[in-house]
Amino acid sequence: MVLLLSSVSVSSALTQSEIEAIVVWAGCEGATIQLMKEGHLGAWFDPSSIHLIFQGLDQVSDPIQVGIVLHETAHCLQDQQGILHFPTDPQQEKDADRIAVIKGCEWGISPTWMPELGTWFAENQNYFGDRSHGSFADRIAHALMDLPEICKWLLE
């Protein structure tokens, strides 16, 4: 099933209720959401409290915002399946990226948000990756490999 991005009214930043709708739609159960408008772009999932934290989302485009929410939601899904461990490692992050890209396609956003996010981090925060997350280049390559048809359709 494809739910188009227009199913949420996105202006400059996703609202708490819009984020909650995406998280629930994607299958993360029992999560609480904290939305911080100030500061650097960032997002975290705390498995001990099933808490998703988002900061500075208004700094990026609407599709990237949804992608970031779906990436952290993917960590929630990994936790629900019992496969999330801390500290995270690059493979776990790459798998969360892939889940986020595919869920994003199902939501109705092009998978191009992932390389756009990598470019944004490189240009705005001089960030290209780290030991626990891996490089953005590797993460993007993994997330975009062998995309399902629904994603290919969005790239046309």
Tally the beta strands. 5
The major sheet is characterized as: 3 strands, mixed
What share of residues is helical? 40-55%
Helix-strand makeup class? alpha+beta
Question: Could you report the average pLDDT, rounded to the nearest whole number?
Answer: 91
Number of domains: 1
Order of helices and strands: HEEEHHHEEHH
Under the CATH scheme, the architecture is: 2-Layer Sandwich
**Based on CA inertia axes, which overall geometry fits?**
globular
Distance, first to last CA: 18 Å
Give structural notes.
- The chain is of the alpha+beta class.
- Helix content is 49%, strand content 12%.
- The chain contains six helices and five strands.
- The strands form two sheets. A three-stranded mixed β-sheet has the order 1-3-2, with helices on one face. Strands 4-5 form a two-stranded antiparallel sheet.
List the helices and strands and how they pair.
Layout: H1 16-26, E1 32-36, E2 42-46, E3 51-55, H2 62-80, H3 90-107, H4 113-125, E4 129-130, E5 134-135, H5 136-144, H6 149-155
Parallel strand pairs: 1-3
Antiparallel strand pairs: 2-3, 4-5
Give a summary of the structure in a few sentences:
The chain is built from 6 helices and 5 strands, in the order H-E-E-E-H-H-H-E-E-H-H.
Could you list some keywords that capture this structure?
alpha+beta; 6 helices; Zincin-like; 3-stranded mixed beta sheet; single chain; 156 residues; two-stranded antiparallel ribbon; 49% helix; globular
